[in-house]
Write a structure and sequence with these properties.
The chain has about 290 residues and is α+β, with helices and mostly antiparallel strands. It has nine helices and 13 strands. The longest helix has 15 residues. Helix 8 packs parallel to helix 9.
Length: about 290
């Protein structure tokens, strides 16, 4: 028998077991980041009382992000994911939120389409190992001041992110910036902030993103600085396919494609601008 209940911090080890089983990159900090922000939007699906599946919701102002839809391999085919998605949608709608987004895997795309989600564009995950040659690829004089993100940059970075994402991700970005082993850099122009990039440790690789920039040259400069700080590490970066320059940049640093996600929306688009997004925050957060 299928039942649903809230996901709590006590369920984080279970969540980690599911992400490990799926080969995903999330850490306990990623799970905690979601459940502590949206305890009413995180759920566990149980089969005969045994925890078997999960889903989470993050709310960014008038936009909701659905993620972590995972089912234990031994419990698949019993409708758990469908029930959890329906429960997440009910929670979102009860708050009066019309715009819902997610990054679907190829396996999950058809499930979301049955709930009225449509594909906006594809996102490519690239991987690489950071080496000195990667860090200096295409090295050239830059007109930007590349430095760690400071408190005085925060308002400008949030404004730029709002233009790119179409929603208010202030609390999420603050959490990512303040996380253990997090890194954050900016490209400062003469009159305004040109780009910022955040990075965080994953269980399999270091995730670069989000990276938001006004110009490709600024994005390239902050990504180069991020790579240069991670020599010897396995890296991941998720790039929106509509942003052609973003794909060119990561290939210059010898990243190679690994897999595809499908950025999907249900309801109004919310004003997202992929041309400003050079890397997403990953399928956990968009």
């Amino acid at each position: 028998m299928l039942t649903l209940r809230s996901f709590t911090v006590d369920d984080i080890p279970f969540g980690l077991r599911l992400t490990a089983q799926a080969g995903w990159n999330q850490t306990s900090d990623d799970w905690r980041r979601v459940v502590e922000r949206e305890p009413a939007g995180c759920f566990v699906g149980c089969w005969n009382g045994v925890a078997a599946a999960t889903t989470t919701v993050c709310v960014f102002g008038d936009t909701a992000w659905i993620a972590m839809v995972l089912t234990d391999e031994s419990f698949r085919g019993r409708g758990l994911a469908t029930a959890l998605i329906r429960r997440a949608l009910d929670e979102i709608e009860s708050r009066g939120i019309a715009t819902m987004r997610l990054d679907a895997t190829a396996l999950g795309r058809s499930v979301y389409e049955r709930f009225g989600f449509t594909v906006d564009y594809e996102v490519t995950r690239f991987g690489a190992i950071a080496t000195p040659s990667d860090a200096s690829a295409g090295e050239a004089a830059t007109p930007f001041n590349i430095r760690p993100l400071a408190d005085c940059d925060w308002t400008a970075a949030l404004d730029l992110d709002r233009r790119a994402s179409g929603c208010d991700r202030r609390k999420l970005l603050q959490s990512l910036r303040d996380g253990e082993r997090a890194r954050a850099y900016v490209a400062d122009g003469e009159r305004e902030l040109q780009a910022f990039v955040l990075g965080r440790a994953g269980c399999r690789a270091y995730q670069i993103g989000p990276c938001i920039a006004r110009r490709p040259e600024a994005a390239q400069a902050v990504v180069r600085r991020m790579i240069d700080s991670l020599i010897g590490r396995d890296l991941l970066i998720d790039v929106p396919d509509p942003n052609g320059p973003a794909g060119e940049i990561v290939r210059q640093f010898r990243f190679v494609p690994q897999r595809k996600f499908f950025r999907m929306t249900r309801g109004p688009s919310g004003g997202e601008s992929p041309d400003l997004q050079y890397a997403s925050a990953g399928p956990e957060f968009g």
